[in-house]
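Hi, here's the filled form for the chain we discussed.

Project: internal
Contact: R.S.
Residues: 196
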Amino acid sequence: RARYRAIAGNRFGRGRRLGLFAELLVLEQAVAISGSDALKHWTGPSGGSHDFEFPRACLEVKAAGAESANITIHGFAQLDQDRDVPLDLMVYILAESAGGRTIGELISPIEAELGSGALQVHLAMLGYGTSTLDDRLSVIDSFAVRIDGSIPALSSFTVAAGVRDQIRRVDYDLSVADLSLLKDARSTPAVVSGAA
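And the returned structure, exactly as it came back:
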């Protein structure tokens, strides 16, 4: 069994685990606000432009380990406001901690509210199985940044369509320290509450 966990853990690497943990934190907050309706707004697993597309705002969720200086943005769409609602970048700084929670411990109460089938479909789309991953993570810091032109972003607003069409793939890093200087005064739960 330990060998299976090691294999599953390697297939679902640390960066993906941190990202899933952060997205589940947002989903947990959304479920507390709007119950089972929250799951239909978690659009990242099904290939949506953003991780969450709520009626009043879209949220792009990023996680970084405590030792990380940057977050990675994938493609032009992640920081592109593609609907007529605000886009917020949610940043979670996570660290391993004996007092933290595992991904499974985040999933259990969400499943209790939503039913296991619906949530498992989303998790499977992300490549997450039912194996136990033992990382215990705690949130060291979290903040939101409104995407409004004040941060450097590659998007349909900053890169011409003809140029975007010729680029096959783009990933770029943004400094967590620089982003924290632009953070919204609202707490991350307040941002989720305002979006849902």
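Let me know if anything looks off before we file it.
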